[in-house]
Design goal:
This protein is an alpha+beta fold and 248 residues long. The protein folds into two domains: 32-74; 82-247, Phytochelatin synthase, N-terminal domain (Cathepsin B, Chain A). The protein has helices at 32-74, 98-108, 116-123, 133-144, 161-176, 234-240; strands at 83-84, 151-153, 181-190, 196-211, 216-220, 229-233, 245-247. Strands 1, 2, 3, 4, 5, 6 and 7 form a seven-stranded antiparallel beta sheet that branches. α2 (98-108) crosses α3. It is globular. The two termini are 18 Å apart. Residues 32-45 have a biased composition (Low complexity).
């Protein structure tokens, strides 16, 4: 296991148009022999008209479906300036469950209802905490049943521009795919309201939203229910994960 990601220490913390409805008007005193041919002609014409109308409706439906898919694609990445995921928040029950709690809060955005104890067993959490972001990634993928997450290390003492840009892309991509990120952080960072958040020994948090095209991110923090969520710049978050990393 890489030594660049330090151990996370203890924290307290269709209406469908009906076809064939049209019919020739009834003629009460018409001669049956003379009326048969016009009635048949009208019926054939009506059926043909209905077929053409149905074909037009089908083409319109297909065009509408294509437009919907195009709109959905345009809402991803640069086409969308902000998005937040719905979190069923839980605080951590003790000082060393920040890893399981952050993973559990992240999975709740995908309607996965898992206990922190279950996740703690999955990632080998002890009173010394959860060893690294790699264990978080492994547990997330195990509970999802697919390799949706990967670990990104921030190996330097502070994040450089390239690492910050990568985090911004990762956040936007993950959130647009309805997937929260779990970050392994250490030190102190100040949110957009000017409130500092200090975890000198290390901590795990969930990233559950973004705005300003990914330049600001929303945090779900299990450490303190009174400060369960806040916004922070992506640059500050990248520095917060320095020498550690994140699962995205």
């Amino acid at each position: 296991m890489t030594t660049l990601i330090r151990k996370a220490a203890l924290t307290i913390a269709g209406a469908t148009l009906t076809a064939g409805a049209l019919a020739a008007p009834a003629t009460a005193f018409a001669d049956p022999a003379s009326a048969a041919t016009p009635t048949t002609a009208i019926s054939v014409t009506t059926d043909r008209d209905n077929d053409r109308r149905d074909n037009r409706d089908n083409r319109d439906d297909r065009r509408s479906d294509r437009d919907d898919r195009r709109d959905e694609r345009s809402n991803r990445g640069n086409g969308r300036s902000e998005r937040e995921l719905r979190v069923r928040y839980q605080a951590q029950p003790n000082f060393y469950y920040c890893g399981p709690a952050a993973a559990r809060n992240a999975l709740s955005t995908m309607d996965r209802d898992l206990s922190q104890d279950d996740l703690a067993r999955e990632m080998g959490t002890t009173e010394n905490g959860t060893d690294s972001a790699h264990l978080i990634t492994k547990a997330l993928n195990a509970k999802l049943g697919k390799d949706a997450y990967r670990t990104t290390e921030v190996s330097t003492p502070t994040a450089d521009d390239k690492q910050t840009d990568q985090m911004r892309r990762d956040v936007v991509t993950a959130i647009d795919n309805s997937r929260a990120i779990v970050a392994n952080i250490a030190g102190t960072a100040t949110d957009t309201d000017g409130t500092p958040h200090a975890f000198e020994g290390g901590h795990y948090i969930s990233v559950v939203g973004y705005r300003d095209n990914g330049n600001t991110v929303k945090i779900a923090d299990s450490a303190n229910p009174d400060q369960s969520s806040y916004w922070i710049t992506t640059e500050a978050l990248a520095d917060w994960t320095a020498t550690r990393g994140y699962s995205a």
